[in-house]
Amino acid sequence: MQIPKVNQTPKVIQTPKYKKILLTGVNGQVGHALQLALANQSGLFAELVCLDRSQLDLSNPQAIRDVVQAIQPDLIINPAAYTAVDKAESEPDLAYAINATAPGVLAEEAAKLGAKFIHFSTDYVYAGNKIGVYVEDDATAPLSIYGKSKLAGEEAVRAVGLPSLIFRTSWVYGAYGKNFLHTILRLAKEREQLRIVADQIGAPTSSHSIAQAVVEVLARWDGEHSGVYHLVNAGRTTWHGFATAIVDAYAQLQPARDWPMLKAKVANIGPITTADYPTPAARPANSCLDCTKLSSDFSVQLPDWRDALMAELEALPTN
Ligand SMILES: NC(=O)c1ccc[n+]([C@@H]2O[C@H](COP(=O)([O-])OP(=O)(O)OC[C@H]3O[C@@H](n4cnc5c(N)ncnc54)[C@H](OP(=O)(O)O)[C@@H]3O)[C@@H](O)[C@H]2O)c1
Description:
Its cofactor is Mg(2+). By secondary structure, the chain is α/β, with parallel strands linked by helices. It contains nine helices and twelve strands.
């Protein structure tokens, strides 16, 4: 009897791939989205331990060592970070403790257990003066304490040499958390005119797109690939373009969702330059990150930022 040829064997996860996942920063945007996304993937792991700042304070290296050794995970996912970009200029020690020292200690403890490590970094590791889209091998030259501390965190993880993935993402926002989406909606409810920076370009990336992509990577990751990956929603815009898209999409959904009307209309959102809106920390003008490596190594692609924005707005509560 001839056995019929099958092109692809169906992927059936029989035993969970990970015994125990330790997830940090679960009250943050990405941590919260990851907790939700992982909850729908129970076949991927046997146990998920989610910790907030009160349960694992990343500014305390000994606490990190104690908690990791007590939990004994075989995968650590670390979205927790010091993310107050402007405040970091006046709190460099705390920013470095959380963004640079802590990932290194987490990676060391993971390595002792033979565990894998997932970490997050940022477009702010680049100077933003490249003509064209950044690839992972491009030179880094952070402009701010936040960017420098995040780059130091990447280097600390790399120095440990364990199987690890470092996802550089950008302009993170979502229905949950404090972010640009909520700031624009608040301002557009309060004011008729908005002025938004139009000379920084990048990809707004939703926390749910990140979480979904990471879950897909986790299902495929054999530990062979290690290193830095760009992970952002497809397409690009400016902060001004993002703000107008938020107001436009909100206006489309508003009648059906019974949301309050916005005072600001798209036509009343004016473009300004970075120089018109000085901030303590300098930002890269070009934050565009190429995600070809992610798609080649893991066959994972993130949706266009406009589709992701609509999904986040739809996740906002109705009135
Ligand atoms: N937000 C962005 O636009 C952006 C852009 C590029 C890259 N990233 C990177 O993406 C990752 C996720 O960022 P996110 O947007 O999810 O950040 P987020 O919403 O600001 O969340 C950060 C989380 O880290 C926690 N945290 C801060 N200090 C801590 C400490 N000492 N010990 C333990 N936890 C602590 C916070 O705890 P509390 O809830 O208690 O404050 C919060 O839950 C980070 O690595 C970030 O650098 C973010």
